[in-house]
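Long-time lurker. I teach an intro course on protein structure, and each term I like to show students one example going from raw sequence to a predicted 3D structure in token notation. This year I'd like something fresh instead of my usual example. Would anyone be willing to generate the tokens for the chain below so I can use it in lecture? Attribution to the forum is fine with me.
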Amino acid sequence: MKASMVRMTNPLAEEQLLSQSWRGVAPYILAIALVSLATLLTLKTQPVLGEISPLYFAALVISTWFGGLGPALLATALAGWASAYFFYDVPAGTGAFGWDDALRLGVFLMVALLMSSLMHLRKRAEGSLKKANDELENRVRERTQELESSVRMVVESEERFRILMEGVADYAICMLDIKGHVISWNPGSERIHGYRQPEIFGQDFSTFYTVADQQRDKPREHIERANAENRHEDEGWRVRKDGTTFWANVIITSLRDQTGVLRGFAHIARDITELKRLEREVLEISENEQQRIGQDLHDGLGQELTGLAFLSQNLRRRLTASALPEAAEEAQRISRLVNHAIEQTRELARGLSPVELGADGLLAALRSLAGQVQKMCAIPIEIKLHDAVRVEDHNAAIHLYRISQEAITNAARHSRASRIWIGLEDLDRDVIVTVEDNGIGIPVNRIEHKGLGLRLMLYRARMIGATMSVQTRQGGGTVVRCVYRNTIESKMRSNGASDSNERQSIERKTIPSLQNTSGG
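-- Reply from a regular --
Happy to contribute to a lecture. Here you go:
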């Protein structure tokens, strides 16, 4: 098998070797043939062209062009030898090769060598230039293919992005330049905000905010925070083209190039008005159910226990009259236990339904809460409550109470405070509830990550359109402050209507304490 393969391979190798040998010898054969032809033609044309025939130069040029330097040198040597024949008897009849003949032959050889060298260099230069051109063409071709591929990928990416932008109808996605002007607009933005693309292009995104938020320069604050923190999320009221408002969850993200230079912002908004309405209804149903249970405890179980207490007292008196002191003592003990159960039932009822119906129910509830906490935790609580503060909306009063309850409980349990201050005041139709302590304060990570209690407080504040802040108290401790606009519009807002919103903020800053303002 191997022998047959060798026999099959050898003829092919011999043929390739012969071909290579022929290509190497052929230029030299061509040089000899050209010089021979030039010599024959010179014999015929010597009387006309002279001893140094230009035909030899033509042979040199052709040999150099097709064969290179080696065949050119061979042609030069042969042409010089052939020319010597013609110089041998010049002038005619001398029969000698003189110095003048040698000089002319030397000049001929020098010119021939120079021409051979120049032709060889030119051919090499042309070869190098052709090679460089080929390489350049290949590079241009490869680069063109890369660019075409990149353009195709960019076009495909833009098409996918366009399909994504146009297909997302539940989110308002738009691009802002570094100054906050709208530069792109998807169909979801048109559906949610109401503006068509030509109408909103180039407009400042503050158009989406309420007049009150614009006056507070909240759009600029939000975009600056997105630039500083790369991302900013906010929930609040936004305004449509037709002037109606909706509750929106908004995320603003900064967009930067590979060098970190700011190129603009991505503004993504979602209308969550219906979700908030459902959450509000669930929370109100929960509050109403707690109030019902509290009233049932007070009016049902409380009354039954009160009757049982009267019966035990009557039984004690009858046993005493019957000269059964031991039984009478047991009856007295039963009466004390029943009275204790009555007190616990009333406490449970007040906890489940803390705010009595009426505009001044919050005031009474906070006074009761302060007394309970002071009694249970043995922490002095100073109260600054204005009798004139009235909250018309019962649901808002419940939320304000729950916020205060959570803040007071946190201060009593976790802050290691030795004193707590509670404030309730009415300032230009704003009901301001403040809970302040002189404890260790809230750690930064708890403020930034928002524990469950803090999230519930913020959530309740949002439900009634109020603002809430958690701040560091001057001299140590924490101040929780909730501001509620006590107007007809606020009442409508807490019941589900749309109006302007105060964004919830949790800030860590130093403010004057209630102690300094209340004189306590």
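Some talking points for your students: Confidence is low (pLDDT under 50) at residues 1-9, 488-520. The two ends are 113 Å apart (CA to CA).
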